[in-house]
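ok so heres the complex, two chains, lmk if somethin looks off
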Amino acid sequence: MVGITSFGAYVPWYRMDRKLIFEQLGWFNPANAANARGEKAVANYDEDAITMAVAAAIDCLQQVDRQGIDGLYLASTSLPFAERQNAVIVSAGLDCKAGVRTADFSGSTRAGTTALLAALDATNDNNTMMVCASENRLGKPGSAQELTYGDGAAALLIGSENLIAEFKGSYSVSHDFIDFRRIPTERFIHGWEERWIRDEGYSKIIPEAVNGLIKKYDLNVTDFAKIIISCPVSGALKGIAKRIGATPEQLQDNMIANVGDTGAAMPLMMLVAALEDSKPGDKIMVASYGSGSEALYFEVTANIETAKNGRKGIKGHLTERNDINVYGKYLVYRNLIPLEIGIRGEEIAPTAMSTLGREGKDITALIGSKCKACGTPQYPKQRVCVNPDCGATDDMEEYRFSDKNGTLMAFTGDNLAFSWDPPQIYGLVDFEEGGRILLDLTDCTLDSVKVGMPIKMSFRKKYADPDRGYYGYFWKALPVKE
Amino acid sequence: MAKGIKNEVAIIGMGCTKFGELWDKSASDLIIEAFQEAIEDAGIEKKDIDAAWFATCFDEVNVGKSALALPKTLKLPFLPVTRVENFCASGTESFRGACYAVASGACDIALAFGAEKLKDTGYGGLPDFGNLLGSQNRAIFANLTAPGGFAMMATAYFDKYGLSADEGKRAMAHISSKSHHNGTLSPKAHLRVEVPIERIMKAPIIAWPLGLFDCCGVSDGAACAIVCRASDAKKYRKDPIYVKALQIATTSGEEMAHQKWDGTWVMPTYEAGRRSFEEAGITNPREEISMMEVHDCFSITELAVYEDLQISPRGKAVEDIEAGFFDLDGKIPCQTDGGLKCFGHPIGASGLRMIYEEYKQLQGKADKRQIENPRLGLTHNLGGFPCMSVVSVAIFGNEL
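and the predicted structre for the whole thing:
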């Protein structure tokens, strides 16, 4: 018996009113008025599919021992690296053990459930798998996708003990239905007529998987408390519900109105939202879409009640938001327009991969050292204890800072430093269990930052070194939202 | 503590260029200008110099690596020249090398030099730090600039002593306004204009809470000193200036990694000051020091230095500032030449430029900004950031 043992989600702090986009480019494509409703979640300039996957994973892990994770699968169609595995950056950020099995799942918005199925298949009595689905897709300015796409991530822990939701079965269909496509050198997708995709794609392929599942396991649609149809087109969603015989009450909200179309992450994010509202005994079906469809079903156990505590999930993240009220800021964050960043901004010191080879774990997982003689945590790792009253040499153990909380001891908002979001806010963070690190802050505005405010750690893209095909990831200080 | 070099070394000649955005002058031009003034001032010849120490910081936009720019420019064949770099303390570091050389007897006459061309980067502020702190810099260090590094001290200081942003900024503005006034009396300064407190407080923010006038300028400049043993000094001039103390203190990294330090002061400044007073035999600096040239890279730095050098009690600098204690007509005039605030901060040259001012004041040659009967002058450099610094303190007197 295998299934979900924990769940988590992430929605970036920034949201953009779709009307803002339509006001800028609606003149060119007035038909987009139909998509210019609600808001979409937008990744900050220092976020991508990798960082959001880490954030969702942290939300999912809570107190779970990261060293106990045996596999980590990352699903996304917007992975930052074509070569250099993305999943391994997530597992390194989480401080998973070296013996972890990692893999990227991509190529289709179905990748989220494909990774989930692969993890369920790989799970037995002796192991725990983590599945992350994360999406940060780029809609071409003026396109429907620019309006509908949203950013976000979900993470599920799969195991065989203390199940929250037992995996009961699945049914997959694969079709080379050529609705959307993109070759590796392209930034934007190509699509075909929306009506064709709606009628011949979503409306036929998803029901095929759903009905296949129902038939295979001799179920009735009425058996399900929640049915997750990962379809971003509201018109099609209604038709699918009708076609499979689901009531509006059974349909899980697709979060188009407040998050957007999160692609491969969408079915998993919807599943997390469904779990948050579920009760023991509920049957939940998840159907994805993309080059076919996969339908899976789970039965919620009594463990769900305690599992709802302590994590932000979808609900918690939806309450934390900040408007991007300038379209140009969005264009810059997504690197859609060239920006005069100044000569200081253009200066990028070369990244030494061998330094990262030596210190990569300390950087990516924020591993410092803790003095065994005096107990002082310190970062970066020291061989001679930094405590002036100690000074012990080579008496250290590894110490992870990324899951520790702290308070801000001093800060500034720096307009001289080059930043994609000036002023660059940074400060000294004192950790609750000892140790201090000078860190950039993120997801905050200067007027909200105060000495003594509580801080959590957030995995972010620290800098880009495009000439060397490299993004540097590190941890930033995140003011804890009240 | 070792006995130090009090009264062992004397300055017999100094030179200092005009500082500023010297678009038409190369580093070599600046080196020659400062050197000509110093050698004439000392009344010696090039061949009398036994060794030199040469300070530059940002060699990439300046003179390149090694000490060779100095002997190649001045044509000093086979002279032992050492390049030193220790952040903003570089200039005083070169002076220390020269002083120790003559104090030890290894040399009879030594030259301390600092030169820096900063204005060839194409943007304001110091050159980008890049890998300044090693190859880990980009990977883990906050996206820090100099004003931001010091601004953090201001937010911590305001918080600790319960100052509102307005109260804190007003005290800092007094510091800058005072220095700007002194700068108008200083022909070699870069910025020579009065700036009232209200204008300083309203200036655009560079790094909160520091505004434009809380920050020193970035400029080009060079300065140098010629030193000999104190016992020989009167052979060269009737008014040599004696080194009473010369100390450098560096961080052990404690401030950035351990929680003991509260961010409102600079630990190595206190320590370098304490050792300097001990070396110079000063027991009450507030009463004994006549004047100071401190590292006012930012107004908050100068504020903290007042306390770190034990001139003002902890948390009381604001009271002294507002009482005019550090003004040109105050008890301890500070930045009598306008400081980094008005000279700008060509890193390698600054320490020697500060010494130049103390030298002139102690000789009674500071013209319109001359203070009355100075006896002991102090200079202070702070390299790095409050959370990670190298600090020099030197004390000079006009009597043995």
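quick notes: The first strand of chain A starts at residue 3 and ends at 10. thats all i got rn
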